[in-house]
Amino acid sequence: MNKMKIAIYHSGDEHSIEVGQDLSQILRENHIALDDQDPTVVITIGGDGTLLSAIQKYLPIIDRVRFVGVHTGHLGFYTDWRDYELDDLVKALKSDGCSEIGYPLLNIDVIHTDGTKANYKAINESTLRKLNGTLVADVLIGDQLFERFRGDGLCISTPTGSTAYNRSVGGAIVHPQLEAMQMAEIASINNRVFRTVGAALILAPNETVTIRPLPSYHRTYNFTADRLGILDKNVQSVHYGIAVPKVKFLKYRHTGFWNRVRNSFIGQIDEI
């Protein structure tokens, strides 16, 4: 009897539900247990957004669970299997040799003006933005003041998240083996009066970033952590670092990072 316990997490569309039902049947036929509460492997069915949601759901047991993605539409950045490959996926699960690859997570502490604290994790990125007007905030690297930022907001990303929103605001693409953290500016203001570094920063694994909005400015901010979005009017500071546990993926046929980048943004190259 295989000791593996599988949770199936799917998006709400009809096709993903049907694929989930088919996969459940194949798993039962192969005597692999289903367990949504305490799984050892989570199979997501949908796209990258579905996988991000599943990671948030299983954060309390992130140190002992592995993920694998089945995509039902366009090729996803995190999803290695197609919806017509369920039999092959189950065969790989049955011959599991505990092969895995780990990607860094962001650890995020939000401090409120009343002293309360909230903690979040993100595999892609977190942002802090003003809903109206300009975000004015001090940015600290470690305990040292680095700059006073003025602009629409700031994006802090992991290496795997460097290909997502970070890329769209001019950040660099970083290989996840570096386990670094990146800060990219969102429409910063740079003129003779106000000045920021004007470039994305790639920080070492042991470094931290703290964003501290100035108290003299209105505190209506939009905070995000992956797909989670929170409108918070009482932010004192947001503290970022690399989390200790990584998110782990099955490595049966895990697509290499640069191949994912090429497939996602470049596509087929015709050789001359």
TrEMBL record:
Its EC number is 2.7.1.23. Keywords: ATP-binding, Cytoplasm, Kinase, NAD, NADP, Nucleotide-binding, Transferase. It is found in: Cytoplasm. The active site is at residue 48. One of its GO terms (biological process) is NADP+ biosynthetic process. It catalyses: NAD(+) + ATP = ADP + NADP(+) + H(+). Pfam families: NAD_kinase, NAD_kinase_C. The keyword Transferase applies. It is an enzyme of class 2 (transferase). One of its GO terms (molecular function) is NAD+ kinase activity. InterPro entries: ATP-NAD_kinase_N (IPR017438), ATP-NAD_kinase_PpnK-typ_C (IPR017437), NAD/diacylglycerol_kinase_sf (IPR016064), NADK (IPR002504). HAMAP family: NAD_kinase (MF_00361). Involved in the regulation of the intracellular balance of NAD and NADP, and is a key enzyme in the biosynthesis of NADP. Catalyzes specifically the phosphorylation on 2'-hydroxyl of the adenosine moiety of NAD to yield NADP. This is NAD kinase. It comes from Pediococcus acidilactici DSM 20284.
